[in-house]
Design goal:
Blueprint: H1 3-23, E1 26-27, H2 28-37, H3 45-57, E2 61-66, E3 74-79, H4 81-108
Antiparallel strand pairs: 1-3, 2-3
Helix pairs in contact: 1-4, 2-3
InterPro entries: Metal_resp_DNA-bind_regulator, Tscrpt_reg_PadR_N, WH-like_DNA-bd_sf, WH_DNA-bd_sf
Domain Transcription regulator PadR N-terminal: 17-88
Pfam families: PadR (PF03551)
Length: 109
Amino acid sequence: MGKQATEMLKGVLEGIVLAILATRPAYGYEITAQLREQGFTDIAEGTVYALLVRVEQRDLVDVEKVPSEKGPPRKVYTLNARGRDQLSEFWRNWSFLADRIEQLHKGEK
């Protein structure tokens, strides 16, 4: 992924992670793995963990510590009502921007 794509991704990564959590609860590594499966191979685990700290601080997720077979307990993140509202707002904004960008793109041809 080039620098421009990386910068664009930074702006929408929170919405993408919230969308992942809307499907099911997950812990940080699972979220990172799912992002990579979706083709976001350049995203560092540290970036995802920092984002999870921010969404937890903003009360967009509920967190449960679950025992792990390897090492310390895992934090499992579940999207809560406030997080679902934030995700809905993200999709509204995404649709607005995507429509405008597509109009610009079509006008360019």
